[in-house]
Amino acid sequence: MLQRDYTTSQLDVLEAEAIHIMREVAAEFERPCLLFSGGKDSIVMLRIAEKAFWPAPIPFPLMHVDTGHNFDEVIEFRDRRSAELGARLIVASVQDSIDQGRVVEETGRRASRNRLQTTTLLDAIEEHAFDAVFGGARRDEEKARAKERVFSFRDEFGQWDPKNQRPELWNLYNARIRKGEHIRVFPLSNWTELDVWDYIRREGIEIPSIYFAHTRKVFERDGMLLPDADVVQRGDDEPLFEAVVRYRTVGDMTCTGAVQSTAATVEEIIEEIAATRITERGATRADDRSSEAAMEDRKREGYF
Amino acid sequence: MDILRFATAGSVDDGKSTLIGRLLFDSKAIFEDQLEAVERTSRDRGTEYTDLSLLTDGLRAEREQGITIDVAYRYFATPRRKFIIADTPGHIQYTRNMVTGASTADLAIILIDARKGVLEQSRRHAFLTSLLRVPHLVLAVNKMDLVDYSEERFEEIREEFSAFASKLNVGDLTFIPISALNGDNVVSRSENMPWYLGTSLLHHLENVHIASDRNLTDVRFPVQYVIRPQRATDHAFHDYRGYAGQVAGGVLKPGDEVVHLPSGLTTRISSIDTYDGPVEEAFAPMSVTLRFEDDIDISRGDMIARPNNQPQAAQELEAMVCWMTDIRKLTPRSKLTIKHTTRTARALVRDLHYRLDVNTLHRDEEATSLSLNEIGRVSLRVTQPLFVDDYSRNRLTGGFILIDEATNSTVGAGMILDAS
Ligand SMILES: Nc1nc2c(ncn2[C@@H]2O[C@H](COP(=O)(O)OP(=O)(O)O)[C@@H](O)[C@H]2O)c(=O)[nH]1
Question: CB under 8 Å to B114, separation ≥6 — which residues?
Fold first, then answer.
């Protein structure tokens, strides 16, 4: 008899692992939630959640930390997708945190609400008493993330202590916490940017239109193309021009740069990424550029 | 395209970071902006060449101390395979990290500096690889450029290491002479070592056969989560009751007769469900949902197996334990939480038989405790039966973690012995 070859493809392995992680959380925690931003990673995470519990509905709510500086297309997508799934969507608003005096808005040209999100996120986790929070971060995104656990422990201040992480062995995850502490869970830890796109193609998953090439008024700052929008402060020395661009990540309009691209389909995006020589964060996120250790510092404070 | 997970180990300065940097660089997994940051840092530090090892130094504390202190995961792909590297530091005090990285690895690469030969640490790395049952081991003899690419030196090291490895459970052992710095035998065969007839390291990583490393014989399905939609509006699924989990061993098919543990009741699989439709078979590492012909009371932590091939239902366990914390020691009478597959229970350490010296393999039977990074053989008593196999037979049903009940930290990793 011919021995069957039980080789499993990389996407099937990654999907099976992510489903296992989601079910572990649903079984072991009382109040999980899934951070859903409308970005491609969280969209993939949402599909995994659908698969993990099918034919039952996703057994936890979705949450978005809304800076008020998001792209309209992404907000529209977020609302529509949550409604389609019949999921409960919690929107935690940075504007509310500012109005309540919990945080102070930065001023000046480079003002960004990126850092303020941390407070809004931690306040919302506390308010809703979430004990597990799914995030779509991947270890290949950034050096500090390469060491993050799948179940990443946060103390009662929401802080991450990179030197004191729980060892993680086999497929056994330690879900034990005390009241007030929580676990950030990263089911896509082992996915790369290309895996995410391959999966979007394979599954035929819809994503917001700004990921595809479109014509937009932009201006250049520090080698990045920022959009023309009310919330983005542009100087007189930063002239606007029209360009055909797309976004590789979706974050705040104030700090997310577009890349010049004519990729109009998922296939074309995959081709482009396979050939690109710049990481998605480096190309498009001013927030990571401030210093070499920028991401690590923000993560310690409780950032995503 | 499939996935190969591998762990790397070496003593400080053997060239581990350089090797990983080169694999990432040559497979184009490194991007321009990352390379620029590294070039900038190299310049700032006054290094004359671009230090590829900087690519893999993640955290600030490490950058400040200039050493790697924790397991970091890296990714690269070639047209043949996707690779996940568990980069584990080689310092004496970090046995814990190597054990962690090796627990999921299909293959381990141990680096040796050709000038220094087999060191105490190399032996420790080899031992841990065998303890964790990593199926494939590569001994990469690095810095061959510094020993004039000498075949004689390579053979000396090969002999010395083989002699030691024969005392261990090393499945498949391959020796490759390389220069991580110059790239000899890393991606392609080197012209500097015509006497070496084997393949390059990357070629080996791309082609080593791993599909049959999984246990495809003993059906093991730890029940993880019960799916009951109970959506009154959706009548099709009103009575649906499925048992979700990730296959840990064997091949399951609809119609198969299975046994439920702990009840011992038998039934047949009526359907193997996924979101994408029912499937004809399931094997590790698939995550699926099983339905059965009979109504049996099944919950998380239970096990599905075959009537004629069952795991041991054990409340008394014999295991090798690696201790991973300095907040307390493992001693006889220690009480801990144990997590094994999807089942969590409490465990009492009944006995510590010996502590193992990981360098000499000497068994210290006088030992009364295990401290951080120490390994020993223990007997445990568990509050409810666990459905276990020998770790050597199945890593997923033979491994467990120990959790400290006061701090909730993961403090130990165990590998079950003598389950049958
Ligand atoms: N000549 C030579 N030097 C090497 C080789 N591999 C690494 N090195 C050097 O050895 C030193 C330590 O390497 P590194 O990769 O940082 O070692 P690690 O501590 O194992 O990560 C560095 O100065 C490297 O440039 C090699 O194959 N040949």
Answer: B141, B142, B143, B144, B146, B147, B150, B153, B154, B157, B177
Name residue B9's beta-bridge partners. B110
Token readout for A213 is: 């090439």
Within chain B, all domains assigned CATH 2.40.30.10 are found at 221-305, 312-419
Other C-beta atoms lying within 10 Å of the C-beta of residue A77: 21
Interface contact A284, partner B, CB < 8 A: no
How many Cα atoms occupy the beta-carbon half-sphere of A154 within 13 Å? 26
For the segment A140-173, what is each residue's pLDDT rounded down to a tens digit?
Answer: 887 778 888 999 999 998 888 877 889 999 999 9
Sheet containing strand A62-66, strands side by side: A89-93, A62-66, A32-35, A132-134, A182-185, A151-154
Pairing state of beta strands B363-364 and B335-340? unpaired
Three-state secondary-structure class, residue A82: helix
Give the global pTM. 0.92
Report yes or no: B386 and B338 within 8 Å, Cβ to Cβ.
yes
Predicted complex ipTM: 0.92
Residues 238-277, chain A: which have Cβ within 8 Å of B? Answer: 276-277
Which residues on chain A are in Cβ contact (under 8 Å) with B84?
190
Provide, as residue numbers in chain B, all residues whose Cβ is less than 8 Å from the Cβ of A10. 1-3, 81-82
A contacts of B212 (beta carbons < 8 Å): 6
B216 touches A: beta carbon within 8 Å = yes
Topology annotation, domain B221-305: Elongation Factor Tu (Ef-tu); domain 3 (2.40.30)
State in Å: Cα B30 to ligand 1 middle. 19
Average pLDDT of chain A, as a whole number: 87
Q: Do B211 and A15 touch (CB under 8 A)?
A: no
Task: List, by residue range, all CATH 3.40.50.620 domains of chain A.
Answer: 10-195+293-301
Window A:221-240, CB contacts with B under 8 Å: none
What is the per-residue pLDDT for A158?
86
Mean pLDDT for the stretch of residues B116-138: 93
Measured between beta carbons, which residues in chain B are less than 8 angstroms from residue A297?
60
pLDDT of residue A181 exceeding 90, the answer is: yes
Check residue B310 and report its DSSP letter. -
Confidence grade of residue B361 (pLDDT, cut at 50, 70, 90): confident
CA dihedral B276, B282, B285, B286 (to 10 degrees): 20
The CATH superfamily holding the domain B3-212 is: P-loop containing nucleotide triphosphate hydrolases (3.40.50.300)
Chain A contact for B27, CB < 8 A?
Answer: no
Is the pLDDT at B68 greater than 90? The verdict is: no
* Chain region(s) in chain B for CATH 3.40.50.300: 3-212
B100 in reach of chain A (CB within 8 A): yes
What separation in Å is there between the alpha carbon of B193 and the centre of ligand 1? Answer: 19
B259 pLDDT tier (thresholds 50, 70, 90)? very high
CATH code for residues B312-419: 2.40.30.10
Closest C-alpha to ligand 1, atom 4: B181
Q: Report yes or no: B221 and B291 within 8 Å, Cβ to Cβ.
A: no
SS3 B100: helix
* A21, A150 Cβ separation under 8 angstroms: yes
DSSP state of A1: -
CA distance to A54, A109, A221, A228, B416, per residue, from A237 (Å): 54, 12, 10, 14, 68
Q: Is B10 annotated as a binding residue?
A: yes
Each residue's pLDDT tens digit, B182-237: 999 999 899 999 999 999 999 999 999 998 899 999 999 999 999 998 765 567 78
Residue B87 Cβ inside 6 Å of ligand 1? The answer reads no
CA of B12 to the centre of ligand 1 (A): 9
- Determine whether domain A10-195+293-301 maps to CATH 3.40.50.620: yes
